[in-house]
């Protein structure tokens, strides 16, 4: 059994206004006995020792921690169904969990909810190399899906910095966007079918769906991004793209966010069909990452206010190289940018991506982080980061220890109009939280943005949806949740 020292404060203590729902049953010996009748030893962890359950109870940002004593890790859809049927009949609350890399406190319990981990459902079910249809269990780690498809000349249509831990079902449940949405589109387009266990144990499946199917409501869409509130995804069918034969990347230093936007326009015009990512990082993101990656050589000579990573994916290396070289030279000649590093080989390509993918763990390495994930019009995208930094500075909270905030940084997906704001902290305090909220949400609402672009709602943003959604939309969401889960056993205290 993996033992992890619990470091996050208990959610119940950090947020005392949230009360345990007294309608939920408290787990007892009979419940345990029932689960033991059909689950093997490696499908059940029961322990009241915090170190033994910390990796399931505590989130990746070390911000939330539940107090569950029971983790169920079924190996089949039938077993998931048996579990949910029993929990529903006995009003036992359940939190579904994938790789537990979630960023809004959605995948850990708030109180004593049973943790339903999909970790043991990790088989690839089928792959059709002609159509590109890939089917797998929900608990397949995204890295393994990538590896399998790579070996079959295809790619999984989504990539994330957490690819070594996150699971396919988890990314579908949270509708993660990732690093290449600009090219391959969202999971609402790529997911072909789902197998889902409803809270009453019924299995609803269209996992064998075809690419086109207009026979009525597209029910699977409801489960994409539902964060396990209306059903537990156990199987996914997804459209894999053909593996690009030529991948390339440039890392660029830029002095203003206006120039980032101009460069994006230039990239769309000149790199057009081969453009597959356009990511930005601000100075602070890279300062944290330089500290985190320690001895890794930085790809540019100077430090800049902004950095952009542009990736191209195509089918003919010579053609792509020529396009990229011409793009880089003209950007330098016209003084749009002052420095750029074009990867010369696969090793350099991977190294450039490491600078982008390491920003989240770098920010999380000082103790923890407050995190916001927002969509805004491109012209406003970086302004929220500036506003937050100004506010934290005015309160004298950013600086060397003992100040609680190490840095407030912004980075994200320019191509998707999505910024991530990471406030790297030495400790979580109510003073910081009260400065950030509702300020960040009000700011986003004033610009008509979305308070969650891709990380979801979870515990963090429950009760804040009105900043981005109308009353009628929220009412419909609540109706849908009630319809699927009348006893409210799935992922309670979260979402809507
Ligand atoms: C990313 O873009 O790196 C992911 O959304 C994860 C993160 O921001 O932590
Ligand atoms: Zn992201």
From TrEMBL:
Note the PROSITE patterns from the entry. FAD_PCMH
Domain FAD-binding PCMH-type, by residue range, is 64-243
Q: Which EC number(s) are documented for this chain?
A: 1.1.2.4, 1.1.99.40
Can you supply a Gene Ontology BP term from the record? filamentous growth
**What GO annotations for molecular function exist for this entry?**
(R)-2-hydroxyglutarate-pyruvate transhydrogenase activity; D-lactate dehydrogenase (cytochrome) activity; FAD binding
Q: Which cofactor does it need?
A: FAD
Report which reactions are catalysed by this protein. (R)-lactate + 2 Fe(III)-[cytochrome c] = 2 Fe(II)-[cytochrome c] + pyruvate + 2 H(+); (R)-2-hydroxyglutarate + pyruvate = (R)-lactate + 2-oxoglutarate
Pfam families for this protein: FAD-oxidase_C (PF02913), FAD_binding_4 (PF01565)
Q: Which UniProt keywords apply?
A: FAD, Flavoprotein, Oxidoreductase
Q: Which is a Gene Ontology cellular component entry for this protein?
A: mitochondrion
Q: What class does this enzyme belong to in the EC scheme?
A: oxidoreductase
The family annotation for this protein states: Belongs to the FAD-binding oxidoreductase/transferase type 4 family.
Q: What is this protein called?
A: D-lactate ferricytochrome C oxidoreductase
